[in-house]
């Protein structure tokens, strides 16, 4: 796997952003492309001053007003359809970065973190991939959306949907050095299955050589899991 990259968002803001699976049948024709593990970010001080940031800009995620009709299998099918999608030589060019840069959420995270929308076009995109899959499947209110992995995990935690059991369709957050605090998170993807041998199978964006790939990861690198509320 390529090393996580840091992308300058503004002169005073260095951020880490990372995010990734499925559209309904009509989306399965979306072109594929892929990797880079760590991206755009927020100063830790900002998060400390605004502990409720995980909820902000995520009003669509207030699940009590949203009928849940998307399954984990549908989300994973769309994520799987993107395997092989790759970033360009500049670390951009993916549909996930382009979608995020033009989304309402980008305006909100720029206001939170600084920088500009265009900075997302070549930023680490694992978290953007997860967000895009949620958007395309209609599960965004359950999956969440952000370009910064830490903020994405905090949103799940704030909504009491964060834990430590690997479940298909869960959003998995990684720390390569084995840290277990949310601030240690560096990468994100979707759980395909628990292999029951100390590893999980995942689908991740911005991994390997900047692609969407299916991977097998040791649980020792997992900080925790976000649990979207899927239809059964």
What secondary-structure arrangement, pairings included, does this model have?
Elements: E1 7-10, E2 13-15, H1 44-49, H2 72-81, H3 95-101, H4 104-113, H5 126-137, H6 140-143, H7 149-158, E3 162-163, E4 171-174, E5 187-194, E6 199-207, E7 211-218, E8 222-226
Antiparallel strand pairs: 1-2, 3-8, 4-5, 4-8, 5-6, 6-7
Helix pairs in contact: 2-5, 3-5
Give an overview in words.
This protein is 25% helix and 19% strand. It is globular and about 40 Å long. Strand 5 (187-194) and strand 6 form a beta hairpin. It has a 6-stranded antiparallel sheet with strand order 3-8-4-5-6-7. Helix 2 crosses helix 5 (126-137) and helix 3 packs across helix 5. The protein has one domain (7-57, 68-226). The protein starts with 6 loop residues before the first strand and ends in a 6-residue tail after the last strand. It is of the alpha+beta class and 232 residues long.
Task: Note the beta-strand portion.
Answer: 15-25%
Number of helices: 7
Distance separating the two termini? 34 Å
* Major sheet: arrangement of strands: 3-8-4-5-6-7
Oligomer: single chain
**Strand element count:** 8
Shape designation: globular
- Biggest sheet descriptor: 6 strands, antiparallel
């Amino acid at each position: 796997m390529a090393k996580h990259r840091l992308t300058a968002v503004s002169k005073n803001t260095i951020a880490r952003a990372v995010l990734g699976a499925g559209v309904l049948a009509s989306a399965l024709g979306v072109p594929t492309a892929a990797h880079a593990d760590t991206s755009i970010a927020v100063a830790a001080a900002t998060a400390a001053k605004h502990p409720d940031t995980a909820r902000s800009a995520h009003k669509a995620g207030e699940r009590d007003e949203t009928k849940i009709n998307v399954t984990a299998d549908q989300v994973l099918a769309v994520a799987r359809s993107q395997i092989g999608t790759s970033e360009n030589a500049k670390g951009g060019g993916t549909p996930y970065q382009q979608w995020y840069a033009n989304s309402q959420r980008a305006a909100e995270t720029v206001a939170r973190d600084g920088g500009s929308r265009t900075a997302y076009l070549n930023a680490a995109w694992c978290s953007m991939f997860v967000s895009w899959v949620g958007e395309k499947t209609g599960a965004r209110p359950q999956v969440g959306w952000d370009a910064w992995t830490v903020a994405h995990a905090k949103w799940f935690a704030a909504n009491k949907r964060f834990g430590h059991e690997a479940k298909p369709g869960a959003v998995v957050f990684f720390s390569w050095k084995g840290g277990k605090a949310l601030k240690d998170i560096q990468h994100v993807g979707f759980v395909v299955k628990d292999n029951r041998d100390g590893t999980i199978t995942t689908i991740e964006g911005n991994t390997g050589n900047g692609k969407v790939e299916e991977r097998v990861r040791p649980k020792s690198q997992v900080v925790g899991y976000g649990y979207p509320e899927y239809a059964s």
